[in-house]
Amino acid sequence: MIGDAALYWRKPDNVKRAYVDGRYGQMHYRIAVPTDGAAAAHPPIIFFHQSPSSGRPFEGLVSEMGRDRIAIAVDTPGFGDSDAPPAPPTIADYAAAVASFMDALKLDEVDVFGDHTGAKVGVELALQRPQLVRRLVFNACPVYSPEKMAEMMTHLEAERPKDIVPQDGSHILHRWKGTKGSYKPDAPMELYNRDFCESLRGLDLAWYGHNAAFAVKHSDNLPHVSQPILVLCPDDGLWDATMASKPYLKNGTILELRQFGMGAISQHSTELAKILRDFLDGPADDTQPRAAPRQAPAAPALVAKPVRRRFIDSRAKQVHVRVVDPGRTTKVPVLCLHMSPVSSRNFEPLLVRLGKDRLAFAADIPGFGESEAPQKLPTIADLADIMTDVTKAVAGAGPIDLMGDHTGAVIAIDLAARYPALIRKVALNTVPYFNADERAEKVAHSVYEAPTADAAHLKKRWESMVRIYGPAMGMRDVERNFVETLRGGPFGHWGHHAVFSYDMDPVLPKIDQPMLVFRPKDGLEENTLRAKPLLKNAQLIDLLQYSYGFMETQADEIAGYLRSFYDA
């Protein structure tokens, strides 16, 4: 049973996700807009997260505040789903990036909520664009002593990426143990697990946030901010340092929240929303003169990335897709469907190659990557139906070609059988064919494994990733795929459950479209052979020299096979 775990992984219904083009590429954000026209009565509020994290912990607060004003949580560059800067940024760079983000959304006055590093970004934004920022709220606003600052720099050095990723995953387990103490005893394990998983997403660039934050002192910048400030002081490990900010507040107050710890933004979003409204909508001195705008850093010259990301509204809410569009072409578009429990990110090397002469796109299967999970455990047919919504939005009425990998292969099989007018050709990486007894046994083991205080769930997942990817991929790529597998949270077993619940016997003989089947040495080579007699029009390519990950590491070769097949 998933139970309450889903509360911290499901996005509230009134919160939407989107991208805009920003200073460093695409910037991802979450937004809630009132449906009754109430937004005009209040300035929008924008949330800046701590490091290393993303806007995800703000989803509950965005939902609550979005009932009577526009509420937005943006992923700062290099975190969450926002593109990273080309070099380590400063806090001034981050502030300039979010200023350009707000310009893109045509926001002319906002209230700001900054959490930890986000507070420093908020201060700098108020100094760069004083007329843009009306009031500010900070969740922790630490002013460190020289001794504490030296200690923090030692921690920063430990965050920097090492030349070698430990094969035993000890760096992940050490980090888990090192940060859990900042959460109150009543904080649900699933909340900490979600926040921890979110903190891993920056990978080698995760140190950028603290690197920028530790180079800037609140004691230097706070006295120049004239706007009203409310500093929240939770018991999250920064109590004394936050209380030390009081002498530097020109027009602000501190609210002690000893009952709150790390994670309170998600755990107590309703209570925090009331505190925010009391301050943002109540009386304050908004008339103090503001200093002249501080000069923002110049924007770097960027080369556009070939892979663009977007969200599609479907019958299962928002689905996240990656798209490479070469423009005018007569070639049939191709949709790539990933294995479980990773995401469409694994297809980026293949999308770049296929997308040179045709529209190539890959969807995060609902419940994985950045796509919302369905309201209930989905079947393969449910997932296939959702993919028809995605196809229509991205590629129009069709027809399209398919590339399905493991779980994605089963979805592709169902699409080909039930939507023959939509699907022209089908390429598969393995055919995960099982008889009834095998499927029943595997369904029984496709269950949710809840997080544990000793991080055994992470250790087990890491060891699995090293075992299946390690021989063929470098440890940094193994680490990237490991982090991607965590995105499903309590829904991470749904893909395999759907696969093992699917009976291929009556379906495979119905498929008339041409098929290309790759057969690597990945544990399904015999299953693929057993399925071959049921396939009418299939070409089998043995790639037994390859195992998991070969569609990334051998993208040139695989693109060649696919282009020959699709274009024949």
Question: Key features?
Answer:
568 residues; alpha/beta; Rossmann fold; 8-stranded mixed beta sheet; 21 helices; 17% strand
Question: Can you describe what's shown?
Answer:
The protein is α/β, with parallel strands linked by helices and 568 residues long. It folds into 2 domains: 9-280, Alpha/Beta hydrolase fold, catalytic domain (Rossmann fold, 3-Layer(aba) Sandwich), CATH 3.40.50; 308-448 and 492-567, Rossmann fold (3-Layer(aba) Sandwich), CATH 3.40.50.1820. Helix content is 35%, strand content 17%. It is built from 21 helices and 16 strands. It has an 8-stranded mixed sheet with strand order 1-2-4-3-5-6-7-8, sandwiched between helices. Strands 9-10-12-11-13-14-15-16 form an 8-stranded mixed sheet, sandwiched between helices. Strand 15, helix 19 (525-531) and strand 16 (538-543) form a beta-alpha-beta unit. Helix 12 (348-354) crosses helix 21, helix 15 (436-445) runs antiparallel to helix 18 (494-500) and helix 16 (456-469) crosses helix 17. It starts with 14 loop residues before the first strand and ends with a helix. The mean pLDDT is 94.
